[in-house]
Amino acid sequence: MISLDDSERLVRSPLGSALVVGSFIAAGERLLAYQRQRAELGPGYWVAVGEAGTGKRALLEIWCRLHRARGRVVALDCARLDPEELSEAIAQGGSPALGLSPGDVPLLLSPQRLPARTQDELAELDRRLFLSFQALPERLSPALRRRFGGVHLLPALREVPDEIAIYFERLLGLLSPGEPPTLDPSAVGALRRHPWPGNFRELRHVAQRLLLGGAGPVVRAEELHFDGGMVH
Q1: Does residue 124 sit in the same domain as residue 64?
Q2: Are residues 49 and 28 in the same domain?
Q3: The whole model's pTM is what?
Q4: Which site among 39, 103, 142, 160 is 20 to 30 Å from 223 CA-CA?
């Protein structure tokens, strides 16, 4: 179990929120209780912004847990769904065809791809919505933008290379059945140099591959296998 002191340091760090949503959701109620003291989901639609793999959906799922939402977070890809069907399903509170049940919280992926009229219709709804963007769009319905109740920016992993080894060792601690391995300087350097296109999702993949391969007590660079087969 992660200590409250560890939780405080991680939540306050630039990547703390992303690590929490990517990996620490299973750390237990002590971490969630700590975050509950600081987490306020303001009125309006809540927005998560970040590259793929930074943990946008998982972050919103944690918000639902913290605020005891009854339903699930259901991701709806605005680029693939019929705008009228999507708007009607959300307005009616559910749609079996979209896997949306009453009480669920819709998570709209890239809602800027919807027609302006549909965006305006969504802005008029009297319900909770989560919006996910890889970057805040310049073109977005003013009515929908006015409904933003809070914007959380999730940084890319490559933006803080000095922190990556810390998060990787924490991941190993969570995933290891026994005493987790430590990193030698060559492994730390490899983690720093990698561009991490998959962000925290890729970081988790690398940790899982390492442990499944039977890592020894000390990890070297050649034992780290990144997504796409890259080895540093």
Answers
A1: yes
A2: no
A3: 0.71
A4: 160
**Contact in structure between 90 and 63 (CB atoms under 8 Å):** no
> Measured between alpha carbons, how far is 34 from 157 in angstroms, rounded to an integer?
24
| 9 plus 33 within the same structural domain | yes
Give which of 230, 213, 200 is closest to 10, Cα–Cα.
Answer: 200
| Structural domain boundaries enclosing 45 | 41-153
- In order along its 232 residues, the chain shows pLDDT tens digits of 333 333 334 333 434 444 443 444 333 333 344 344 444 445 578 888 888 888 888 777 777 766 666 678 888 999 999 999 999 999 988 889 899 988 888 899 999 999 999 999 999 988 878 899 998 888 899 999 999 887 878 888 888 888 889 889 888 888 888 888 999 999 999 999 999 999 988 998 999 999 888 778 899 999 998 887 655 5
- Measure the CA–CA gap between 157 and 74, rounded to whole angstroms: 25
